[in-house]
Design goal:
There is one protein chain. A hairpin with a 2-residue loop joins strand 1 and strand 2. The protein is built from 13 helices and 13 strands. It is elongated. Strands 5-4-3-6-7-9-8 form a seven-stranded mixed β-sheet, sandwiched between helices.
Amino acid sequence: MNIVAALARARAFLHRKGIEAPALEAEVLLAHVLGTDRVGLYRGAHRTLTREERVRFEEMLRRRAAGEPVAYLTGHREFMGLDFLVTRDVLIPRPETELLVEMALEILGRGDVPGEPLLADVGTGSGAIAVSLARYLARGTVYATDISPAALAVAAENARRHGVTGRIVFLSGDLLAPVREILPPGSLVLVAANLPYIPSADIGRLMPDVARYEPHLALDGGADGLELYRRLVPQARELLVPGGHLLMEISPGQVSLLGPLFPPDTWQYRVHRDLAGRERLVVARKKAPFQGRAVHTVKRPVKKISRPLVTVSQRQLRCPSMFWARWESLTNNNPTPTRASAPPRPKASTRPSPTRGVPLPMERSITVRAPGQGKSPFVIPTSNTPQRSRPTPAPAGRCTLCPQCGHLFPR
């Protein structure tokens, strides 16, 4: 039996067993048995399979029909264009997790991170996130943590295969606890976490190849799926620099539960959707502390003006005697002269005037600032009419006679 015939039989068998992509999975399994890729299958399409190859291929088909994932059968899974080793000790990398890595690369590629950035991958598993970041970043060190020693061994092997062993520090422990032992607070610029987020009650309702074969330690996230994230956020707040980012993968139904995790006075977060349009990635930014001084509203007494404000009328501006009388009353520490100190107002003249009926400018009051002692005041003319050298007789009952200079002024 050659390759073409073997693929045709495998596609039909997997289709009868209800596999969603029978043709693709048949090609992947046969390519793994023959030690080639999918392109190599069609280059040697008429090659005859040996007895050992047929037996091994049929065994893989039976295991796949029973629900075992293809990644566990082949021991490999592609992620971010890189080939990763996968065993039953780690969760299989998912395509939606690539959104987390792409967002981390975008944040770190903005150029506002000086020096060698320090990153953390919490719950690294197979090391897909940590190895991808180290592989595609030109600088920086990644601290990868996991509570499973077997998972750390797989991650370390993937780092070795991709040549980034010197840039990843693998630590065994719970969440960020091992990182806190070796780094001071405010050291990390980014924390990436793909922790278990499936609610405990939903584990049994997962697909059979997930619920029966993948490790429950990497799936069970507690009652609502956010139990581990509630413990992670305070640790990340301690280790992140002001302005650092925390990236978390979640389930679409958990967005409404994120508010208590990220207090608005400490965090600013946003939820991004994956390629399927589902809310998948949380990008939280740690706010920088307020650096300035607190602003308090204090009622302070109004500072007294050293030079008094002189309120004069148009009549006082045009009559030097009346203006200087007002000026002397202010400079003699008597800013509010009484009516007795003011000159008496004479009675209006009753004699007729040839200018009766001529409109006169209205009397207006202005405020000028008195200059220093011994200097003449700055007088601002307030009338639009030209100044007259001689007083003009005014209508009776409309003018006031200055008792000191004899001028007539409008009231």
